[in-house]
Amino acid sequence: MTHSPCSSIVFARFFGQPLLPIPTPSRLGTGERKTQTPSTLRLRCHRRDAASVAMVKSKAIRVHELGGPEVLRWEEVEVGEPGEGEIRIRTTAVGVNFIDIYFRKGVYAAPTLPFTPGMEAVGVVTAVGPGLTGRKVGDVVAYAGNPMGSYAQEQILPAAVAVPIPPSVDHKQAASVMLKGMTAHVLLRRVFKVENGHTVLVHAAAGGVGSLLCQWANALGATVIGTVSNQDKAAQAAQDGCHHPIIYTSEDVVARVKEITSGKGVNVVYDSVGKDTYKASLECLAPCGFLVSFGQSSGKPDPIPMSDLASKSLFLTRPSLMHYTATRDELLESAGEVFANVANGVLRVRVNHTYPLSEAAQAHADLEGRKTSGSIVLIPDTVS
């Protein structure tokens, strides 16, 4: 018996795999796949005829060894001309996501060392590969996912991963919301389809994805419970549509969820924390509830025995965004819903922190130290 990657069999034991995209072959054209080169920034020179194409000088964050924020180095790099099916963009805003930290630390394996981190950016097209239609110099585009390497002033991308940005959405908003927003879209509308009357539990409710989950689930008519670390974040979560913020540092999460739901439990738990929360997440579920594990900021969860699911006929899934945006149509649909909800006010994008791209190390340190809320955006330093 076989199933598609997004079949109804939702029990998955892929605790080493993120919901956010991981390095895999990327889409380069209609139905064509090509493996990424070892340098995820595509810092190579395409040779045409016998002559070497002139390189564009730029700067990027590079990781030569795994470790703490201090391994993020600001270095000069060379960026070649785009090849067939590719574009080059001058980056205007870069989204920071926890998956960037996972790669920097080696929790998830980068294709090679050194590498440039980053899975999300907005930029202006500065060059178009030969024979490519539908893209032109001056277009403003956003991308989220593969290829890794958005912490750069300039980058070469497969044209198929870039999507247009509505004029009503500015660059910082787009850079901060595309990856997180498509994650929220997949979690709420496809992995488990939240409907009016459902009750949901969102861990890290004041974080970048958590904030969007609260807002979107509220708009869908769900009762939203969220966990946060302090009173300030509880206030923010409440503003974002969380009906019942729980401060996990001073309250018993399971007891409070049972109190709020009159002992019934919740229909779905969205858990990006992992090791510190997954046991409580299971206890908070109603019979036939879904535990959607899409991150592990506190570490890799311990294995969950099948018997732990049997007591309430629970479902467990560890989804990957790339499986839900594998085609161009799926990508455009997901990104389109996100940008439409930003434009119509359903989603309020909280860009609470901006840093120069050259100071990415400080942004990582603050994110890991739980000193941030909402989204973080890096602004590329002026290309010299």
UniProtKB/TrEMBL annotation:
Keywords: NADP, Oxidoreductase. GO terms for biological process: cell differentiation; response to high light intensity. Signal peptide: none annotated. Residues 67-378 form the Enoyl reductase (ER) domain. InterPro entries: ADH-like_C, ADH-like_N, ER, GroES-like_sf, NAD(P)-bd_dom_sf, QOR-like. CDD domains: QOR2. Gene3D superfamilies: Medium-chain alcohol dehydrogenases, catalytic domain (3.90.180.10), NAD(P)-binding Rossmann-like Domain (3.40.50.720). GO terms for cellular component: cytosol. Pfam families: ADH_N, ADH_zinc_N. Homodimer. This is Probable quinone oxidoreductase. It comes from Sorghum bicolor (Sorghum).
